[in-house]
Amino acid sequence: MRWSPCHDEDTIAAPSGINHTPDRSRLTRHQERSFIKRRARLYQAPPPTKPIMHIDHIALWTSNLDRCKQFYVSYFGAVPGSGYANPKKGFASCFLSFTDGARIEVMTTTMLDPIVMAPGAQRMGLTHFAISLGSERGVDELTQRLKEDGHPVLDGPRRTGDGYYESVVLDPDGNRIEITA
User: Fold this and answer.
1) Structure confidence at residue 117 (pLDDT)
2) Residue 157, preceding bond cis, omega within 30 degrees?
3) 24 φ, ψ to 5°?
4) Which fold would CATH assign to domain 118-181?
C-alpha cells in the first residue's frame, strides 16, 4: 500500500484517494510505529544528488596485451573485458575489473612509440599503484608465489613507516605494484 502526504500532517491519503485520519487509539503498538515511520519518510528531504568522485581506472601501456592481461588475471583475480581494437589507429586495449569496482586498462599501440623505462624505474608522475589483499597472510602468500614464478620482488613483505604491511613487485612491463594488507 502506498501512502502520500497531504496538507494536514495527521491526514494520510489512502490508495483510493480518499483522505482520512486513522483512529490512532485503535492501532496496535506496531501499527502506530509503522504509521509514524511512514509519515516521517514522507516529509524527509531527498538525499543529496552530488555525485561521488572516485578514480575510475588507470591505464598502462604494454608491449604484450595478452601477457599483461594474464598477469593481472592470474595473480590478482582481475576479470578481463571483451577488449577493443582500432586497427586504423593501431590501438588495442582491454579493461581488467576487480571485485571492488577498480579497473586497469591495458593498452598496446603500433602508431605511437611509448618511452620504455627500465623495469621498476623511479620517475616523476605515476610511480606505483597499490592493490590491497586485506590481510598480511595474503601479502606473504602472493609475494612468495610471484617470486617462485620468476617475477621481481623489489621489497618486502615488511611493515612500512606509515603503517602499511606491503611488498613491492613488478608486473611484466616493469610497473611497480605495492601489494598491501
Assistant:
1) 83
2) yes
3) -70, -15
4) 2,3-Dihydroxybiphenyl 1,2-Dioxygenase; domain 1 (3.10.180)
